[in-house]
Amino acid sequence: MRPLPAPLIAHVVYRFGVGGLENGVVNLINRLPAQSWRHAVVSLTDVDPAFSKRVLREDVHYTALGKGPGHAFPLYPKLFRLSRELRPAIVHTRNLAALEASAPAWAAGVPARVHGEHGRDINDLDGSSVRYQWVRRAFSPFVTRYVALSPDLDRYLREQVGLASNRIEQIYNGVDTMRFCPSPAGKAAIEGCPFNGADHWLVGTVGRMEAVKDQINLAQAFVRAIALCPDARKRMRLVLVGAGAQRPRVEAILEGRACVIWHGCLANARTSPSCCRASTALSCLRSLKVFPIRFSRRWPRRCPSLPRGSGRMTNSSRTA
Questions:
Q1: Do residues 205 and 145 both lie within one domain?
Q2: SS (H, E, C) 97-166
């Protein structure tokens, strides 16, 4: 008698390309036991071939639906047929853009529909949009379980959307503490970076410079820290890698300060020679303090603790 295949998880995202949410999907696929789970990735728009190479398994099924602007309603028949064809045990949608896929999954008889809230929408940074609250409320009957990546999002789902607490699981985004940790060999030099001195204490972030990522807050905190703390003024340096609409404002805040900002082509940072600076910065994150994590225990007591409620470092074995 042939053994039954492992249950399938269908991960539904707006786009499967470079991004923190998408990288979380990659980590789940790579880390969940292969004998226990199979995986499929359904992108409402497209699948980036270069990014999908981060998935180490060869048995992952990818589907790109080519969605245009507007609601996903025209894709409901495709999503219904796809659910019937793949027969997943779980459909896991992520963020508002993919929430609609829970309805055709329910109609197709998928036993479990999980929805993850990974962060604020660029058009609703404070969660005050009544329209978005109603959309989430309207699709809630089709969702079996919710995952919120922060206490703030947990409160939003309970207090503003009106979901019952027993339907929500709050799981912090994990940090791979085997990879992102102080190097045993000491701080590695970053090619092209002017701050490679042994006494330099680097603060860094890698990501697109958009309002939802809030590098402006980091820049302002850095400026305030070096103004308040003499030791920080001597040793602290800021390294930013990325591009986006907020970059000019960040540059204006940091003008004349001890920082370096690189235009990082994050999509190809690991493979493209043209992005060697971003690649080097990414590979040297072990020697950087990367936001958002709590590091106040290592911060001198006379200096302000900068991150407040921004998240916490957790073991990477339990990620959403």
A1: no
A2: HHHCCHHHHHHCCCCEEEEEECCCECCECCCCCHHHHHHHHHHHHHCCEEEECCHHHHHHHHHHHCCCHH
Query: pLDDT averaged over consecutive 10-residue blocks of the chain (320 residues)?
Result: 87 92 93 96 96 95 93 94 97 96 98 95 89 97 97 96 97 79 76 79 84 90 91 87 88 82 49 39 42 32 38 42
- Contact of 41 with 47, CB cutoff 8 Å: yes
Rounded Cα–Cα distance for residues 125 and 165 (Å): 22
Q: Which amino acid is at 215?
A: Q
Q: For residue 283, which phi and psi values (nearest 5 degrees)?
A: -70, -20
Residues 156 and 56 both lie in one domain: yes
CA distance 157 to 133: 9
How far is 239 from 49, CA to CA, in rounded Å? 29
Of 104, 70, 75, the C-alpha closest to 88 is 104
Among candidate residues 173, 150, 12, the one with its CA nearest the CA of residue 158: 150
Total domain count, the chain: 2
- Confirm whether 312 is domain-assigned: no
SS3 content of the chain, % helix, strand, coil (to 5): 35, 20, 45
**DSSP code of 33?**
-
| Domain carrying residue 46 | 8-170
Q: Are residues 24 and 91 in the same domain?
A: yes
- 222 and 162 in a common domain: no
* Same structural domain, 121 and 208: no
- Reference 264, options 240, 292, 238; nearest CA is 240
Where is 63: in which H helix or E strand? strand 61-64
Q: Are 49 and 125 in contact (CB under 8 A)?
A: no
